[in-house]
Please model this.
Amino acid sequence: MDILAFIDSDRFQDYKILIESYTGLARDALHIHIGLLIFVIIRLCWRRKGGWILAWLGALAAALGGEWLDLRREILHGDVQSNAAHWHDIWNTMLWPTILLFVGQWLQPGRKEKAPEEPASGDLVDDALDKPGEEPPSV
Model:
């Protein structure tokens, strides 16, 4: 028994055709846009530490899941494509998420350091007296 039998690969194919006809984009372009969209959505939702890798893993899961559904449909209908065609789709889906994963650290704004606190007016004399060899400021 297939654990994931409830996932209908024919319905998944129908959705892909619907999106393709609605947007007018080629399938390669859809792979690129979907991978980037999933990456950006996850990264925006998870802005804490580890968000870049989590977003990349989400895009990878979507790419592999989509190819698994495609392969499953091909096997059921007896029209299996070459492995190169499936790797081509995964490559298209993962190119920009992978680039963003590696350059993401430079895209993220740097953390602001706290500005040094200014001493109160009476603290200037005390600070100057604490340093050996310095004369206190004249008042």
DSSP finds five helices and no strands in the chain. The chain has a mean pLDDT of 80.
